[in-house]
Amino acid sequence: MKTFLLVFYLFIPALAFCQTTKITGIVTDEKDSPVAGANILIKGKVTGSVTDSKGNFEINTTTHLPITIIVSIVGFQKQELEVNTSSSLTIKLVESSEVMNEVVVSASRVEESILLSPVSIEKMNVRDIQQTPSISFYDALENLKGVEMVTSGLTFKQINTRGFNHTGNSRFLQLVDGVDNQTPGLGFSVGNLFGSSDLDMESAELIPGAASALYGPVAFNGVLMMRTKDPFQYQGLSAQAKLGVNHIHEKYTNAHILNDYSIRYAKAFNNKFAFKINASYFSGLDFFATNYTDVDPGTPVELRGENNPARNALNIYGDDEARELEGIGRVSRTGYEERDLTDYDVYSLKLNGALHYRLAENMVLSYQYNFGQGTANYTGSNRFSINNFTLQQHKVELKGNNYFIRAYSTAEDSHDSYNAKGLGQLINKTWVRDLSGNIVSENQADDMWYTRYEEAYNGNIQGVNSSNHSAARAFADQGRFLPGSAEFNSQKERLITTQGLSGAGILSQSKLYHVEGQYDFSNKLKVVDVLVGGNFRRYDMFTNGTLFDDKGKSILIDEGGAFIQLSKKLLNEKLKLTGSVRYDKNQNFEGRFTPRASAVYSIADNHHFRTSYQTGFRNPTPGDQYIKLNAGPITILGGVPDNSKGMTVYQNSFTSASLGPFFGAFQQAMQQGATPEQAIMQSKDFLVKSNVAYIKPERVKVFEVGYKGLIQDNLVIDVNYYFSSYTDFLLNQVVMEPQSAVLGNDGKINPQAASDLLNGDSHLYQLYTNASDRVTAQGATLGITYALPRNYSIGMNGTLATFDLRDANPNNVPAFNTPKYKTSVMFGNSKVADNFGFNIAWRWQDTYDWYGTFNQMRPGKIEAFSIVDAQVNYKVLSLKSMIKLGASNLFNKQIYQAYGSPAIGAIYYVSITFDELLR
Predict the structure, then answer these.
(1) Which DSSP letter does residue 16 get?
(2) Which residues are CB-neighbours of 565 under 8 A, at least 6 positions away?
(3) How far is CA 392 from CA 195, 842, 887, in A?
């Protein structure tokens, strides 16, 4: 108790006994109209206020006068004023374009002008969010230069920068109020399914490219830092209702309504305590994945199509397996369309509450709780239905103007999630009948189906035309459960609720715990600015044996890191040098340093050149480390030593590439009259002992140069070039382990091990490891923003991204999956008249090939496309409301952003937003 009281008196002074000074005033524009929503902050403190609808504000402080206050709001020049009297203040703000004087935090983890950022950075402020023509702020991120977006479904979008794009991007860090928004089991953020609503978003900052030196291992390809509204600054009741429609003029369904509702309430008491609560709910009919292109690798391209007996349609599942039938040819089973297997009625529910208490004028303690639940469709190695998935987060943070300490936890529950592609394959094993009409067991279903096909095709079935593929298929499919039938629905429900290899259900109840802190010593040291920080994280993985070897136990993974950043201004503050280094350690990998160095040289007040050298790394995900899935003929095995303890596969196995030559040589020797023993001795040296290393982190080194300048106070130019070098990419390698030792005492291939392969005394493994191959990527971006007269603005940007495989094996490198050229143009005016505004965005990207595990790493063409988003809005000032009419993909072009994912059509919507009522 004595210790507690000591801490209490040290950190929570008895402010009630201190003399309080009240500072009041009004903020107006140049026309003497009140400015609502302006932030008023005491410099060097976290104490502040915000102006009400009449421009009035009030701050209570124990700091003795004089003090300096900072007044800021998007669209006006920031002002610093010294206050030496308690008389009411009148502050007049001067309008300026919001793109000219932005302040960003994420580039250096401290506040700085966006013009002086040492690395390329993009930002959306609160006005951008309100004025976006896209259906949500998250969709609008695609308009930023260098950003790639991949849509797997209406509620699941992934963002990436600088190549190696993926539908589930574990190389890109998303933070919401400093909290990592990833689900521990998936190892990446599920878009904004569990993030913030537009109503509570204040800003989003994006760093393209490696940021591990300040943010650790997940920030391999970049960082998206999203910040929600502070309840001290943004008070009152806000609500939004959005009604939309999609599936216009589509083949497989009629037009369908989208609903999106949000509400927010925040209140502050005596400038000491504040709280906020948020709730949002989105629902709609997802985009349909109906690409029925035949992708069967065993059929020549010119023979593929609906009439191909071995047809493997991209979004039909259960037709993936094909066999070569003697005298007939290659034949595949009949599959089910995705739209009959997955849940296209998607939704997203987000609940949030936060409590903020000012312990002192430079110390705020806050607690925040986030709950998210939703359904989404995701393209990975299969098509997955993330169904009623929940994510819960708790965060506690102590924050001052130059430090913070935060701790948070994330817990997921997969609930009813399942593998939709696997579901089609499993249903196909439940209805097959033998030649007598009796349903066979699931392990006999495939063999019996092909037997029926052969018998019918060869004319052995009375009443069925011989040599007719359609007739043979119809006979083999007799008894097939038709989509929508009671039998089909019964098996579908059973398999969805069955987890593990015998069902399609997915189980993950994994957690992560994270604590971090940061302190800025810059105000205490005169010679150099110093920033230090560090974090510790624990993953607590549990799949109950369905993916990991964790039946009845959890798998724990600990990692942590710390960084220091030094910066110094030289040459009359025209040159700013910054250097940082971070050290990270994961329990399964060696410790690693990631340095970063940068220089910004200002040749004039508004013209700044920058250069930087950055390094990054990415730890393998928990799944890469610990998956242990026995999938019958092959076991998928994560690549850390603990995961294969007691096993010898890494030390005692053959490469899969050497198996074919060995079996071929053995058969040839036998045909030439050799005995089995002689044939083994003649062919065994075709086998090659594998040399698979345990996994380690991926690495990248980046060199970057750029220029950002403001010309005549109305034109911003931002140009950037980067060159990246990558090594140690994660990959899978298949090996075969015999029961006997691979090598004999003489160091040569053991004949008994070769015999094991022929006798079936062996097993296939898919191992996680790294490639030593080095590849490079380079690119450039150009952004131009021009503030036109009468409040009009136009922004244009273009991105070039190229990839050089060099001498690397393509099988050892993840797919680049990025268009070479991408561009966008935005034009708008938030105040055409007093109450009327509009915004238009046009995007284009060129053609490229998409490689992914969904199509077994075979290329699929993503055609070039251009789309237009647009909105017009009208403000009803008396009701503090705005009505918006808008469209995403205005001209309803059906476009693909990933091969195997759905085509994206138009969304037309109307919304009404009431902002900060009851203040």
Answers:
(1) G
(2) 108, 109, 214, 530, 531, 532, 578, 579, 580
(3) 11, 36, 32
Identify whether 308 is part of a domain.
Answer: yes
Average pLDDT, the chain: 92
**pLDDT in the model for residue 919:** 66
Helix (H) or strand (E) holding 471: helix 469-476
The whole-number pLDDT of residue 856 equals 85
Residue 459 domain flag: yes
Q: Which of 61, 92, 123 is the last residue of a domain?
A: 92
d(CA 479, CA 431): 6
Distance of alpha carbon 610 from alpha carbon 618, whole angstroms: 26
CA–CA distances in Å: residue 603 to residues 108, 529, 606, 612, 714: 21, 22, 8, 17, 18
By C-alpha distance, which of 548, 505, 507, 508 is closest to 185? 508
- DSSP of 312-329: -BTTEES---EEEETTTE
For residues 712-735, one letter each, b for 16 or more C-beta atoms within 10 angstroms of the residue's C-beta and e for the rest, the string is eebbbebebbbebbbebbbbebbb
Residue 22, class by beta-carbon neighbours within 10 Å (0-12 exposed, 13-18 middle, 19+ buried)?
exposed
Reduced to 3 states (helix: H, G, I; strand: E, B; else coil), residue 84 is: coil
pLDDT digits (tens, 9 = 90+) for 304-327: 999 999 999 999 999 988 999 999
CB 414 within 8 A of CB 185: yes
Assigned token pair, 85: 């009297």
CA pair distance 567, 436, nearest whole angstrom: 82
Q: How far is CA 593 from CA 212, 517, 578, 794, in A?
A: 10, 19, 17, 42
Q: Is residue 708 part of a domain?
A: no
Identify which of 270, 274, 242 has the alpha carbon closest to the alpha carbon of residue 258: 242
CATH number reported for the structural domain that contains residue 79 in this entry:
2.60.40.4130
Angle between helices 659-671 and 751-759 (to 10 degrees): 90
Question: What CA–CA distance (Å, rounded) separates 311 from 293?
Answer: 9
User: CA 118, CA 580: separation in Å to the nearest integer?
Assistant: 12
Give me the percent of the chain exceeding a pLDDT of 90: 79
* The pLDDT of residue 14 is above 50: no
Are 451 and 315 in a shared domain? yes
Contact 148, 166 (CB under 8 A): no
Per-residue pLDDT at 100 exceeds 80: no
Instruction: Supply the angle between the helices 676-683 and 659-671 in degrees, to the nearest 10.
Output: 140
Distances (CA, A) of 284 to 72, 704, 887: 38, 42, 16
Number of helical (H) and strand (E) elements in the chain, helices listed first: 12, 52
Domain count, the chain: 3
One domain for residues 323 and 465 = yes
Q: Which two tokens stand for residue 183?
A: 């689900």
In sign, the C-alpha dihedral spanning 622, 623, 624, 628 is positive
Task: For residues 830 and 370, give the distance between their C-alpha atoms in angstroms, rounded to a whole number.
Answer: 32
Q: Which domain holds residue 646?
A: 624-695+732-770
Q: Exposed/middle/buried for 7, CB within 10 Å: 0-12, 13-18, 19+? A: exposed
> Do 49 and 366 touch, CB atoms closer than 8 A?
no
Q: Read off the tokens for 579.
A: 């250097």
Torsion angle of the four alpha carbons 624, 625, 627, 631, in this order, in degrees rounded to the nearest 10: 70
pLDDT tops 70 at residue 26: yes
Domain end position, chosen among 46, 66, 92: 92
More confident site: 30 or 202: 202
CA dihedral over 485, 486, 491, 496, signed as positive or negative: positive
Q: What is the dihedral of CA 626, 507, 423, 322, to 10 degrees?
A: 10
On whether residue 707 sits in a domain, the answer given is: no
SS3 507: coil
31 class by beta-carbon count within 10 Å (0-12 exposed, 13-18 middle, 19+ buried): exposed
- 3 state DSSP class of 53: coil
